[in-house]
Amino acid sequence: xxxxxHAHGPATDRSxxxxxxxxxxxxxxDDVAGRAAVRSILTGVAAVRPGLDxxxxxxxVQEPEVADVVAYALENDAPGAVVVPLxxxxxxxxxxxxxxxxxxxxxxxxxxxGPDPRLVDILVDRLEAAGLAPDDSVVLAAAGSTDPAAALAxxxxxxxxxxxxEQPVTLGYGAGAEPRVPAAVATAxxxxxxxxxxxxxxxxxxxxYFYDRVRESGADVVSAPLAPDGRLVDIVLDRYDAAT
Length: 244
Prior knowledge:
Rossmann fold; 41% helix; 16% strand; single chain
């Protein structure tokens, strides 16, 4: 049975494996809580679909590297490998690192997690948990990318969040795009009504470097990252199924 999460090597018994190996590939982080949050997604995937061989990989900071995990799986008789980017939009890591890792027979890449209406649902829940009030101004904080497609994806999520909240949502980025989160927070503060606060919705998968910078951006309230959440598990499995 393959309901355990495998970091690199094959499962001990693949006799009941369901389809290609699912390689969940995240950016990687030195943050202990961030690592646990990301791993919770793949642990959830393995629990929901016990016959699926689920493995963890990274594009930076942590090991094993995604190319090594894919190659090892295929070299050891896995019936294919599908890399699901545990990333919220397209960008360098999807188009370069992951694309290179699956550039071989039997391997393919799924779409990243975002945009997706369920991510908006999670953002709404995180904001409600943070105590969002009617007079607050909301800034959606994303990691950022120089890829135009990534910006469009984030803008789509911001528009969905604004519709759900029935109030404007402005954007701020950690890197790669403008405005940066501190500038977006400052602009929002300049237009606050009396008694209002600047509340940042963290469009980030897990705690780590970018989340720490968001918390230092000058906002009055910063919501928790997206993970852990069972809806992320559902999105990962949907991406995997679509790719197979």
